[in-house]
Amino acid sequence: MTIYNKFLNNSLKALIYLMPLSFIFGNVIINVFVILIGLLGLMYYKKNIFLWQTNLNLMICMLFFVLLLFSTYYNFIFIEQNKDAFKALKYIRFLIFLLVIRKLIIDEVINIKLFLCSCLLISFLISTDIIFQYFFGKNITGNGVIEFSRGVKYYTGIFGKELIAGGFILMFSTLGIFSIFYIFNLNKKIYYIVIFALLTIFFLSSLILAGNRMPVVMFMVFLVSFSILYKKKEKLYYFLFSILSAALLSIIVIKSETLIKRASNFYIGIPNPLIIAEELKKQYPNLEKYKNSGRQFHTLKEFKTTSNYKEYPFFTGHLPIYITSVDLFLDKPFFGGGIKSFRNNCIKKVHLPNRVCESHPHNYVLEILNDTGLIGFLLLFFLVINLLINNYKDYRNNEKSKIQISNWIYLAIILSIFISFFPFKSSGSFFSTFNSSFVFMILGISLGLNDKKFNKR
């Protein structure tokens, strides 16, 4: 290996292992990492990164990005100009990012065990910072507690005023926790179970303090899913621990007046699909004159005279967002409105009851349907489901395989993808730098594992 290639090789390793750290410093640093990994990967592999012939998964992935470009610029040229259209071109960086990571996994440039250790270390430090903030009122950098009305507190640690600590801990702790099986060299499996249990309680505690409700719910989904997927006889212990954790979480919530209020508000605010369907069936001919005016329904004189209008409690706000999102999807069901289309088009719907304008639909499924239509949704979720099935088959048959990849690596990646694409969770924007970087990083690793096994066979 030449000095030049060795430099590129070591640089790519360092960037991948430090990738979890970049998420602490925000979108600018994350973008720097993504772009550097893409550029250095292109310099290292050159055209070889695109030599994948008839690989179905990569063809589907490529089609998704092509469709995103097509949808965005078709709407931009033939329907109306979208100020975010240029972002579709910039978004190609995530395709290059994914291809580089996939190739690094196939060629064993990256040690996935070290990457998982990095995830554990970063999520452990962030959780420790949040617990420190809970006991002392400030975190190690001097950030105070974020407090809203009715005494609701968020312990955000190093993230300050950004309420993303829970999402960060969920993403990286569910990967990093599996590194304990490499870090500790123990003779008895019960010791690993105890360490796993202690870390789980530790991360769950920090998630509760962070105040983000959905990450807490998804962490419990992670625990239950892990105990179901795990193929060894110890799965009973993990399953019982998951039940115990759920019971403990329930007790903590019930004993805290603030938490029980937030949990009740969260539960009541879950959008009812029947209400969404009922609202979308309604016709408002008396409001047609306000179409595309941008005027909100509650400001119109018809606000009190519209006969079939039914006002629903706002709660978490997800119901009107989902109604608006589905309504916009039905306008362009096949190819969608292009990248970031929800925030550009929702203004067209606010003259109708129970509609609202936000920056994104707060759900991956709805956002992908809005931006790339049903075709884009089917492409991406076929890719995700196919990878999950293939990785799970390899996990189940790993002992019979000629090439050994740790079962814990498979479980980490399978569960991370499952949690990321869990269809019923509320979430940030799929096309944001923060979420896209994580999603395509995990998909790149999964593709690499899948193709590495396939090539060996």
The multimeric state of the shown protein is single chain
- The ordered H/E elements are HHHHHHEEHHHHHHHHHHHH
What value does the average pLDDT take?
89
Kindly state the number of beta strands: 2
Helix-strand makeup class: mainly alpha
Task: Briefly say what this structure is.
This protein has 457 residues and is mainly alpha-helical. The protein has helices spanning 3-22, 27-45, 56-79, 86-90, 93-106, 112-136, 165-176, 180-183, 189-210, 213-229, 235-255, 257-268, 273-281, 318-331, 341-345, 364-396, 407-420, 433-456; strands at residues 146-147, 153-154.
Descriptive notes:
The chain has 457 residues and is mostly helical. It has a domain of 213 residues. Helices cover 64% and strands 1% of the residues. It is built from 18 helices and two strands. The protein has a two-stranded antiparallel sheet. α16 runs parallel beside α18. It is globular and about 75 Å long. The protein starts with a helix and ends with a helix.
Labels describing this entry:
2 strands; 64% helix; two-stranded antiparallel sheet; 18 helices; mainly alpha; 457 residues
What secondary-structure arrangement, pairings included, does this model have?
Elements: H1 3-22, H2 27-45, H3 56-79, H4 86-90, H5 93-106, H6 112-136, E1 146-147, E2 153-154, H7 165-176, H8 180-183, H9 189-210, H10 213-229, H11 235-255, H12 257-268, H13 273-281, H14 318-331, H15 341-345, H16 364-396, H17 407-420, H18 433-456
Helix pairs in contact: 1-2, 1-6, 2-5, 3-16, 5-18, 6-7, 6-9, 7-9, 7-10, 7-17, 9-11, 10-11, 10-17, 11-12, 13-14, 14-16, 16-17, 16-18, 17-18
